[in-house]
Each structure stands twice: as C-alpha cells, then as structure tokens.
Amino acid sequence: MDLENFHVAVIGAGPAGLYGAQQLVKQGARVVILNRDIKPGGLAEYGIYPDKYKMKDGLRAQFEKILASPQIEYLGNVTIGKNGALTIPELFELGFDAVLVTVGAQGTKWLGLPGEALRGVYHAKDIVYHYNKLPPFGAAPFEIGQNVVVIGVGNVMMDMAHWLIRDLQVESVTAVARRGPAEIKFDKKEFETVGANVDLLALDAEIARVTPIMLAVSQDPVAAKNEILAGLPRALPPVSTTRFLFDFLASPHEICGDAQGRVVALQVENNTLVPSNGDVKARGLGTFRKIPCDTVIFAIGDSVDAQFGLPIAQGEFVKNPAPRFPIEEISYEAFDPQSGAPLEGVFLAGWARRASTGLVGVARKDGTNGARAVGEYLKTLPHPRGLNQALLREKLNAHNLAVISQDDLKKLVEAEKNEARLRGLPEFKFATNQEMLDAMCV
Ligand SMILES: Cc1cc2nc3c(=O)[nH]c(=O)nc-3n(C[C@H](O)[C@H](O)[C@H](O)COP(=O)(O)OP(=O)(O)OC[C@H]3O[C@@H](n4cnc5c(N)ncnc54)[C@H](O)[C@@H]3O)c2cc1C
Ligand SMILES: NC(=O)c1ccc[n+]([C@@H]2O[C@H](COP(=O)([O-])OP(=O)(O)OC[C@H]3O[C@@H](n4cnc5c(N)ncnc54)[C@H](OP(=O)(O)O)[C@@H]3O)[C@@H](O)[C@H]2O)c1
Q1: Which residue's C-alpha comes closest to atom 8 of ligand 1?
Q2: pTM here?
Q3: Cis bond upstream, residue 136 (ω within 30)
Q4: Which of 73, 155, 317, 418 is paired with 294 by a 20 to 30 Å CA distance?
Q5: Ligand lying nearest the CA atom of residue 279
Q6: Among all ligands shown, which has an atom nearest to the Cα of 154?
Q7: 106 CA from centroid of ligand 1 (Å)
Q8: Contact 126/137 with Cβ under 8 angstroms?
Q9: CA of 109 to the centre of ligand 2 (A)
Q10: Are 344 and 373 part of one and the same domain?
C-alpha cells in the first residue's frame, strides 16, 4: 500500500526522531517534525561532549540531509504535550494519521533523599545542557565547588568528570558507586579523557577495602581494576592537578548541609554484594559514613517527562504488552493501563521508549524500527484523514510562537559559523533562544 498521503507527526528531533522521519519518508509517508528546541539533534547536539567536534559535525551533516527531504517539514521551537502548544489528541484532530513520540528522557531522576534541595546539588542532565548551551540551561548559573561527588559510574559520570577535571579544574572528583569495581559502566574511550588524574594509590586502597566482598561473590578484584584502568595507556596528558577518586559499595542516604544551606558532605550507607539473576545487586549493611564535599551531582540516568501526557510506569511511558505491530519482537505502541488498550496511532521510540539507554546508533535503530511499526499501522487504515496544514499553522500562531523552519536553521548555522570565525573558535553556539531568533531574524 502506498503511504503517500498519510501524515505522521514526529515529536522530537533527536536521533530517534530524525532517523525515524527518514524511514517514514522511505516508506512514502509525509512527516511533520515538531521539536521543543530551536535546533534539531537532541542530545547529539546538547548531550555529546562539546569538544567531540568531528562526531557532532558528522551527525549535524546527516541531520541536515534528512531535513532537506521535501517530504519532511521541520517546526522547531514547538513543545507538544500537556503543557505545550498542542496535545497528542489535538494532533489527531488536525488530521495526522499517526504520531511517533521521540521526545527522549526529559524527566529528572532524583532519589528523594534529605538534602536534595541544598545549594550545590545538581542533576547531570542539567549540567550537560548547560555546558552544551541548551536554552535556558546555557545561561543559567551553576555553583560548582572544589570537591565534587558524582553519583553513578556510567558514561555520563565520565562526562561530568571530564568537565570538572579538564574545564573547571576542581580539586577533587569522587565517583560514588552503589555496587563494586566490577560493575562500572563507563567505556575505556571516555576514561581516556581523565584517566591521568586518577589517584592510583587511592584506587588500590579502595579496591583492597572492597576485596573481601568481591571475593565472596566470586569476583576478581585485579581483573576489575584492569578494566577500570583499561584506557590509561592512551589517557590524555593531564591539564589539572584534580584528584579523581572512586568510592565503591556506597548508596547515597542523605546530603548534609551547613547553616547557609550549602552542601558539606554526602552521607552514604555501606553496601555488600549479593548474587541476583547472574549479576550482583547492592544490599545495605545499615552502617553509614560521610564523604566530605561541597557539590553533589546525580549521574544516575534520566526518566521520561511525567508532564508530557502519556501514561507512565517506573519512569517510562507504558508500552503495549501485546504489540500489534512488533518489530524485532519489541513493542513501540503507547498503552493506557487504565483502559487496558493501546493508544490508537501513538508510537514511542528512542529514549522516549527506553530512557537513558544506549548511544546514538541505538537511538537511530530504535527510531527506524519505531517508524517501521508506524508504517505497519498506517497500512491497516482505510484512507488518510487529510492534514489541515492551515489549521496547524493557525493553532501554532495562536500561541505566539516563533516557529523555526529548515530555512531558518540554515541562517542560524551560518550565523554561528560566522561568530566562530570572528572569535577564532572551533565552534560557537548562542546560549539563549533570543540570540538565536535574532540571528535568524525571526
Ligand atoms: C551526557 C550525554 C552524553 C552522550 N554522549 C554520547 C556520545 O558521545 N556518543 C554517542 O553515540 N551517544 C552519546 N549519548 C547518547 C545519545 O545522545 C542518545 O542515545 C540519543 O541522543 C537519544 O536520542 P533520542 O532521539 O531518543 O532523544 P534525544 O536526543 O534526547 O532527543 C529528544 C528530542 O525531543 C525534543 N523534545 C523533548 N520534549 C519535547 C516535547 N514535549 N515536544 C517536542 N519536542 C520535545 C528535544 O528538543 C530533543 O530534540 C550521550 C548521552 C548523554 C546524556
Ligand atoms: N561518551 C559517551 O559515549 C556517552 C556519554 C554519556 C552517556 N552515554 C550513554 O548514555 C546512556 C546513559 O548513560 P548514564 O551514565 O546516564 O547511565 P548508565 O550507564 O546506566 O549509568 C548509570 C549509573 O548510575 C547508577 N545508578 C542508577 N540508579 C542508581 C541509584 N538509585 N542509586 C545509586 N546509583 C544509581 C548505576 O549503578 P548500577 O549499575 O548499580 O545500576 C550506574 O553506575 C548509556 O547508554 C551511556 O553509554 C554515552
């Protein structure tokens, strides 16, 4: 069946949305991308570390090519959802035949600990958005001290360490892990940026401290240490004297503050390891200790946006447990557990389907497969509804939005390249929406 006159709204222009749109076009459908940010790219633009110029430019070039398709219309600076310019039911009323939700994981995952509201407590996502200049985070102040605790030992923790050690050059960064040295999740390549700052004596002492617990679950402490330090031979020369430390088997319990409401320590509960389904999990021992610090950053992953308007369970949008259009046995269909029925025509892909999971390549594959599921759904429809383009414009205009098109984006790219040339920088980004709008004369 030819999908030529079917219109799909893709919400979000991160890798999942953009590659999803590309796949929908391949299947013959027409796509309108509605993106919260002025710029496309999502975390590829505003998450990937700023100095990965080659990777970011390569992705930008691919995204530009996708957006050049005459079957795709880009509407940037448009938020969809309960608090947005349009809701999902309104998109169907306008005549869209299906909606592919690729809004990523915009919710902030806190642990609900005492002290989370103290000054100096942050979530990594906000800091990542800050140093990558996503409005409004780009221009927001972040009070980072000298002795920083980062909770979590994944690649986002490594990006935090990168920023703190190479850019801010703080005194110490301590990565706190609830499990042990064998459960680190960061990659060797990311370790290379800050490996030279690891306090090797302190790491040895820390591994010796947790060795009895590792041995009790048949883990090899030497192998774990080698894995942590695998990137050391190719580590970049250090640019600061920052001490990079690890603190294992420690679950955050409370963030302690002073009279001024500023962080002074992270209190942790000591853990042991217990086998669990072929892996290990942390179990609290009921004993506590304090790690002195002036800043605490949570790098424990993100959840989806609870305000978006789709049903949520365990930090994720609910998927149809018995999918009608599975791709590689995965369900891409949004589901309403209250009615026990799928949300007709609504599909999820990328980090909106599984929060904080995988690299750009994973989001690309998921967006593509989500779009294939949409294609299968469209084939079951008797005929296209017919999108009312004029009414869509009218509705957006009613919100007084400066809606960004593909042509506007070209002006922005040129303006930022020009600024970079004038300032002698490898790259320049405007940190506020107003500056971007001015540069595009919108
Ligand atoms: C700090 C960090 C560093 C990373 N570094 C790398 C790396 O070096 N290499 C790598 O391969 N991967 C990296 N990743 C992973 C990669 O960025 C993700 O896999 C990928 O971006 C997820 O794509 P997505 O499209 O699902 O979501 P996102 O990239 O988050 O895109 C979501 C899009 O939805 C839009 N949106 C959100 N809410 C709404 C709404 N209500 N209405 C309309 N639009 C909305 C946003 O504006 C955004 O454009 C990193 C991730 C993080 C967090
Ligand atoms: N440069 C890059 O390539 C790059 C950069 C950033 C992100 N990414 C990708 O983006 C994805 C997300 O990265 P991420 O670092 O956010 O996630 P992640 O790899 O899942 O790491 C999250 C860390 O937080 C810990 N954690 C989770 N919940 C916790 C809790 N309640 N209490 C204490 N600790 C908790 C986890 O410990 P447990 O293991 O015990 O759960 C883990 O150490 C990953 O796929 C990553 O590879 C890639």
Answers
A1: 48
A2: 0.97
A3: yes
A4: 155
A5: 2
A6: 2
A7: 9
A8: yes
A9: 12
A10: yes
Q: In this structure, is residue 433 part of a structural domain?
A: no
Nearest CA to ligand 2 atom 35: 300
- Name every residue whose Cβ is closer than 8 Å to that of residue 371 and which is 6 or more positions away in sequence: 8, 19, 20, 21, 22, 23, 24, 27, 100, 349
In this structure, the answer to whether residues 160 and 250 fall within a common structural domain is: yes
CA-CA distance, 106 to 392, in Å (whole number)? 25
Ligand 1 centre distance from Cα of residue 14 (Å): 5
Residue 417 inside a domain? The answer is no
Rounded to whole angstroms, the Cα distance separating 307 from 2 reads: 36
For residue 52, the ligand 1 atom closest to its alpha carbon is 8
Residue 427 lies in a domain: no
Closest ligand 1 atom to the C-alpha of 84? 41
Distance 224 CA to ligand 1 centre (A): 30
Tell whether 1 is covered by a domain. Answer: no
The ligand placed nearest to the CA atom of residue 269 is 2
144 lies in the same domain as 24: no
CA 257 / ligand 1 centre spacing (Å):
33
> pLDDT 10s per residue in the chain (442 long)?
579 999 999 999 999 999 999 999 999 999 999 999 999 999 999 999 999 999 999 999 999 999 999 999 999 999 999 999 999 999 999 999 999 999 999 999 999 999 999 999 999 999 999 999 999 999 999 999 999 999 999 999 999 999 999 999 999 999 999 999 999 999 999 999 999 999 999 999 999 999 999 999 999 999 999 999 999 999 999 999 999 999 999 999 999 999 999 999 999 999 999 999 999 999 999 999 999 999 999 999 999 999 999 999 988 999 999 999 999 999 999 999 999 999 999 999 999 999 999 999 999 999 999 999 999 999 999 999 999 999 999 999 999 999 999 999 999 999 999 999 999 999 999 999 999 999 999 8
Same domain, 341 and 287: no
| Ligand 1, atom nearest to 349 Cα | 26
Query: In which residue are the tokens 């110029």 written?
Result: 53
153 and 282 share one domain:
yes
CATH of the domain at 12: 3.40.50.720
CATH of the domain at 236: 3.50.50.60
Residue written as token pair 């098109």: 405
Q: How many domains does the chain have?
A: 2
DSSP string, 394-435: HHHHHTT---B-HHHHHHHHHHHHHHHHHHT-S----SSHHH
Name the residue with the closest Cα to ligand 1, atom 15: 359
Print the domain residue range for 181: 121-298
